[in-house]
Amino acid sequence: MEKVTDVVMVRGEAELFERTAHLFEAATEISCAARDLHTWSVAHPTAPEREQSVRGMTVRKIYLPGVLFDPALAEHLRFMTTHGARIRITEREVNETILLDRRIAIVAGDRVGGVRGYTVISSPELVQGIRSLFEAAWHGATDLESYKARFTELGAREILEQLASGCKDEAAARALGVGLRTYRRRVAELMEVLGASSRFQAGARAREAGLL
Hints:
DNA binding; DNA-binding
């Protein structure tokens, strides 16, 4: 562990948990931004502890769309929202960060040798700057239920089935009862949601997520 004034560097989730468990236990407000729930697994209690961990707290979380495609992760999101957490989805890259009571920031770093580094920050000036970035991401993100409604509106599963069947766009559009331009627009939007750069990749990611 290396410490420079009020910035502490830790290596791996085990050391992060050892150094910050008391901060999570004492926190009454948690703001989190992550690609998925795996980055901050240290902050996600096991099932018997979840209800107690959320009760009486202000919890805001931002995730990328991929969390909606993993049944276990989606179930965790449903549980959190049921117990008062506010969750939003963003299609933009996020700075993977946790803010505790607006006075502590934990920033995830890169993996080196298979171990991820984390920076724990208590400097008021640095925390304020990180908090400003989080607030901008929060206001630019979409409420979970609204995002899920949009995903359903796209007819995502039906489009993925058409892509997987190898149908040409014209035939797929007819099968779904939409115009060709509408179909192609929805395919493009779905690819964006999946973070895919090609239709083949979209299909692969959908299969990995259990959508096909």
